[in-house]
Design a protein that fits this description.
- By secondary structure, this protein is of the alpha/beta class.
- It has a single domain, classed as Rossmann fold (3-Layer(aba) Sandwich).
- It is built from twelve helices and ten strands.
- A six-stranded mixed sheet has the order 5-4-3-6-8-7, with helices on both faces. The chain has a two-stranded antiparallel ribbon with strand order 1-2. A two-stranded antiparallel sheet has the order 9-10.
- Strand 9 and strand 10 form a beta hairpin.
- Helix 2 packs across helix 9, helix 7 packs across helix 10 and helix 7 crosses helix 11.
- The protein is globular.
- The structure holds iron/sulfur cluster and zinc ion.
- Iron/sulfur cluster binds next to helix 6.
- Zinc ion binds next to helix 12.
Length: about 300
């Protein structure tokens, strides 16, 4: 392998979209610089923000938590928020690991579960969606429920921002899925930052410009503990997996594809601004909603 672009050491990381070669030390500093640059570029944080970080125990959220704590815990306050969807042998293990790490960092933690807030776990949802496939895939219930509880939990923690571990790959998959579904309304809500409303805590994605592969490399290099043993047992149903496979193939053949899709989205986004603005509130729970019921309440109704 070539030598590091910044020093004379042997490169350990070759980032094909550059091409850029880095030794371990320069890879970590490049990674951290991009993290901070993302926060500056998209104005993700203000002084005195109280940041609730949605932590699942996976590599993305654990890395986001570590970096926010490393660089932003002086001027901002960092808290951790965990949602237990009730997925046995998966989320229980991941959350136990995350809890230990959060405690080690001395960060305030709040835990919420689907069972306590919604009266259902993802196993209950799986039983219903398994029988009646027409009501939607298991994951199509999990996402809205988790988003709702993250928002409620962040409010209860008096957070001014809700940070998630979404990375570049996730964002590009969402852009492509919405494009294929002709869902410009959903697409208009993507981006590094979602503005808050009366009932919605602003959401930020500090790993928005960071490829997944590099998060794994950084976490391993910097001994950030995360749960990476298994995939969610219900993920086989996710349409997202198809898009992940297709987009990864494109990125491998044509390095830089992810950044290019993101740039296309960022050029389109201003054109979508204001087109879908009309804000409503869910008749059942008061959350921001595009119709009479928010998507979580609509999904709960389908399950009843
Ligand atoms: Fe939920 Fe689907 Fe993700 Fe599993 S893969 S945690 S069911 S959204
Ligand atoms: Zn609702």
């Amino acid at each position: 392998m070539a030598s590091c672009d910044k020093c004379t050491k042997k490169a350990k990381f070759s980032l094909s979209y550059g091409p850029i070669n880095y030794c371990e030390e320069h890879f970590s500093s490049f990674f951290e610089k991009r993290f901070r640059k993302t926060i500056r570029k998209y104005s993700l944080l203000k002084k005195k923000d109280v940041i609730a970080v949605g932590v699942s125990g996976g590599k993305d959220s654990m890395t986001a938590l570590h970096l926010l704590n490393k660089f932003y815990s002086k001027e901002q306050e960092i808290k951790a928020l965990m949602i237990d969807e009730g997925i046995p042998k998966y989320r229980d293990k991941a959350l136990a690991l995350a809890k230990k790490e959060v405690e080690k960092l001395g960060i305030e933690l709040k835990e919420i579960s689907f069972r306590e807030k919604l009266g259902k776990t993802m196993v209950d949802v799986m039983k219903k969606t398994g029988r009646k496939k027409t009501i939607g895939s298991t994951c199509s219930f999990c996402g809205p429920f988790r988003r709702k509880l993250l928002n409620e939990g962040a409010k209860e923690m008096n957070a001014t921002k809700l940070a998630t571990g979404h990375n570049l790959d996730d964002e590009v998959q969402s852009i492509a899925m919405n494009f294929f579904d002709n869902d410009l309304k959903k697409m208009s809500r993507l981006g590094a930052k979602t503005e808050g409303t009366k009932n919605l805590i602003p959401r930020i994605k500090p790993l928005y410009l960071t490829p997944e592969k590099e998060i794994i490399a950084y976490a391993n290099l910097n001994e950030i503990k995360y749960f990476g043993e298994h995939c969610c047992p219900f993920s086989w149903q996710a349409k997202r997996n198809e898009f992940r496979g297709m987009l990864n193939q494109m990125e491998n053949k044509f390095p830089g594809t992810f950044y290019s899709v993101l740039a296309t989205f960022e050029n389109l986004k201003p054109l979508l601004k204001g087109k879908f603005k009309e804000e409503k509130f869910c008749e059942n729970c008061g959350s921001s909603s595009s119709g009479k019921l928010c998507s979580a309440c609509m999904k709960l109704k389908k399950l009843s």
